[in-house]
Design goal:
This protein is of the alpha+beta class. The chain has a domain at 199-334: Beta Barrel (L,D-transpeptidase catalytic domain-like). It is 22% helix and 20% strand. It has 10 helices and 16 strands. The chain has an 8-stranded mixed β-sheet, sandwiched between helices. The chain has a two-stranded antiparallel sheet with strand order 1-2. The chain is globular, with a radius of gyration of 20 Å. The relative contact order is 0.19.
């Protein structure tokens, strides 16, 4: 897969995700529903949240995401990716990597803010949505590959599984939302990584990508998809050659021999930027032609063996990685 630089995707989505300059971006803090006004003299001070040990898997998932230890899509369930993220946190904290919320882990993984917040959809957000064409030619003709639905937008903004958002908001008619509609969401906020990344590690068997600091300590962890064909999985040390937020995508039909449209097309296409771009919201190119680390429009598929050779992350994780990666950074690909 290849991508080239393109002017930043200036939709409301990019603003909501918190673009912070030409090569850096992070998710913005979620909107919180306003509280009914009271007279100034009677307005109580907002109570400070008292950090406390996490008590549930939902709290663990949200707090892990806040610290750069991604468990994929937040769903309040103890799944394999959540266990992997927790074990990475435990190693970083000098704890036994049990993958369990044992007493020592609960005391170290403190919940730093409420686990849920609310998000109110704006007219601008809803107006930015557009269906995604079902063909490569149709996608290339679109002005942007934006989110298609309010549910898809909310799921990406707050690192959540769409099914969990439906469960969290059972009375919400996602297919017919109007401006001003408010929904409950995981309160992920900004992702804060504790330290400077000096090296990336892709572990093929574990389907995980981790960033380590100068001491070798894990400071960030992400589930990752790898190539389905073993011969397309590079092993050894690679290096970052370019870091691009909001890339466009060069569709090469030779890379998709399984596609009848690609076989008939016979020419390359340039697909516009956006979260539904094949490389999502970020491209981190590597010094092996055609290889890179990038986002994906299908975060629920991350962690499977299903790419054409690149390393796929959920868009929110790819955005976080943009803030850590730098040109020349070593990337060790391990079996």
């Amino acid at each position: 897969m290849t991508a080239r630089a393109f002017p930043l995707f200036r939709s409301v989505l990019a603003l909501a995700l918190g673009a912070a300059g030409p090569l850096r971006a992070q998710p913005a803090a979620p909107e919180v529903a306003p509280v009914a006004a009271t007279p100034a003299a009677e307005t109580p001070a907002a109570p400070e949240f008292e950090p406390r040990p996490v008590a549930t898997w939902l709290e663990a998932q949200v707090e892990l995401h806040r610290r750069g230890f991604s468990c994929g899509s937040i769903d309040a369930v103890r799944g394999a990716q959540t266990v992997a993220a927790l074990r990475a946190f435990q190693r970083a904290a000098g704890l036994g990597d049990t993958g369990e919320l044992d007493p020592a882990t609960r005391e170290s993984l403190l919940l730093t803010a409420p686990v849920l917040a609310s998000h109110t959809f704006t007219a601008e957000e809803l107006a930015s949505l557009q269906p995604v064409a079902g063909t490569w030619v149709g996608k290339a003709a679109q002005p942007a590959l934006a989110h298609a639905t309010p549910l898809e937008l909310a799921a990406e903004l707050f690192h959540a599984h769409p099914g969990y958002l439906r469960k969290l908001n059972p009375d919400t008619a996602w297919e017919s939302l109007l401006p001003g509609a408010t929904v409950a969401v995981p309160a992920v906020g900004r992702v804060t990584v504790g330290g400077q990344a000096m090296k990336l590690h892709v572990r093929l068997a574990a389907h995980e990508l981790e960033a380590t600091d100068a001491t070798g300590r894990v400071i960030a962890h992400f589930p990752v998809s790898i190539a389905r064909d073993v011969e397309k999985r590079p092993v050894g040390e690679l290096h970052v050659t370019v870091v691009i937020p909001d890339p466009d995508y060069t569709f090469n039909p030779d890379v998709f021999p399984e596609s009848p449209e690609a076989r008939e097309l016979g020419r390359k296409l340039i697909l516009p930027p956006g979260p539904n771009n094949p490389v999502g919201l970020a491209w981190i190119g590597l010094d092996r032609p055609g290889y890179g680390i990038h986002g994906t429009p299908d975060p629920e598929k991350v962690g499977r063996t299903e790419s054409h050779g690149c390393f796929r992350l959920a868009n929110w994780d790819a955005r976080t990685l943009l803030d850590l990666a730098w040109v020349g950074m070593p990337v060790e690909v391990e079996p």
